[in-house]
Amino acid sequence: MASEDVIGKTTGESAVSTIVNLAEEAKLAREGVKAPGPAFLSICKSLAAGGIAGGVSRTAVAPLERLKILLQVQNSHNIKYNGTIQGLKYIWRTEGFRGLFRGNGTNCARIVPNSAVKFFSYDEASRSILWLYRQQPGNEDAQMTPLLRLGAGATAGIIAMSATYPMDMVRGRLTVQTENTPHQYRGLFHGLKTVLMEEGPRALYRGWLPSVIGVIPYVGLNFSVYESLKEWLVKSRPFGLVDGSELGVTTKLACGAAAGTVGQTVAYPLDVIRRRMQMVGWKDAASIVTGDGRSKASVEYCGMVDAFKKTVRNEGFGALYKGLIPNSVKVVPSISIAFVTYEVVKDVLGVEMRISD
Q: Is the ATP-binding keyword given for this protein (predicted)?
């Protein structure tokens, strides 16, 4: 955990320094002083905004994130975590306050670059897709539609997931391990090195296929629903939710909550399969998910389809939705905070283009 804290501290200091520098550049721009390299600066601002949004939103829901993963991978014949409230109480009683946030430092080390790449990729994919769409006859003045936003969001999700997947794989194992795990991963880099040496480079991408398939509807629907709902509210102005041409923070949070709920419900079974495939090959996984210290072999999966078949056959269809309740409780504030934080930080840094543009 010490190395994880060092990583978090270093990352935090770098982020603060970057924010201060970018804020100064934004101030100069507002005062009419032209800064060098405007294209590069805009990219840095967009990446910084996305990274901050991801770190803030994920830390806010870290206990629910850990409980969700524990529910997804625990043995069905030895239940330790039985629901959201009971599960959180059990973690608090057996591992203390730090147990609720176990793996969050590593999670932020993963989610900050993931979120930065995801939001930036969405911005760029949206512009590219709209440009290509306008090249078609009769579409010269076309605007973004829900379907185009879905495509841009799916593209952004695939790029971000693939770029940071090894960190996600190790983060899942760090989140699952407890104080009684025989051989501890001491942090992100130690985990990456250990998996690489003991299981080979392919192990770092175990579960990648269901992750990519799942991220297409999840991230795609998140962006599409969020942006389309915002656009509809601005145009129709129902219930007096719109002040002028801008939505309030509370309304944006509600839009993010709706987007997150739709996306995670559709993609959740693939997330369960991804987590289970990530545990394959880890010799200490059995003692973690059973909690009894026995050397009972964990289930082996030959691929995504085999993992689906064995999960449903051994535990029933409901196993594909293990941990859905804490994930639902988590995803509403998480997605909402991420979207709103991203837009607020971009305003502070003086980035002209927003995702809704």
A: no
Q: List the structure tokens of 154.
A: 């799916």
- The C-alpha atoms of residue 54 and residue 60 are separated, in whole angstroms, by 10
CATH node for 2-349: 1.50.40.10
Give residue-wise pLDDT tens across range 329-342. Answer: 777 788 888 888 88
| Confidence band for 154, pLDDT divided at 50, 70 and 90 | very high
- DSSP codes, 167-183: HHHHHHHHHH--TT-SS
Closest residue by Cα to residue 200 from 307, 306, 281, 288: 281
The rounded distance, in Å, linking the Cα atoms of 97 and 112 is: 23
Task: Give every CB contact of residue 177 below 8 A, 6+ residues apart in sequence.
Answer: 102, 184, 185, 284, 288
Q: How far apart are CA 59 and CA 269, in angstroms?
A: 24
pLDDT in tens, 11-51: 445 554 555 555 555 554 444 444 434 577 878 888 888 89
How far is 196 from 308, CA to CA, in rounded Å? Answer: 26
Helical segments of 240-296, H only:
249-279, 285-290
Is pTM beyond 0.85 here? Answer: no
Phi, psi values for residue 247, rounded to 5°: -90, 145
* Count of helix runs (H) and strand runs (E) in the chain: 12, 2
CA gap 191, 98 in Å, rounded: 19
What is the token pair recorded at 77? 């014949």
Q: Residue 352 is encoded by which pair of tokens?
A: 């002209």
The one-letter code for the residue type at 270 is: L
The pair of three-digit structure tokens given for residue 277, joined into one six-digit string: 């495939």
Is 101 strand, coil or helix? Answer: coil
Yes or no: say if 69 and 176 are a contact pair by the CB < 8 Å rule: yes
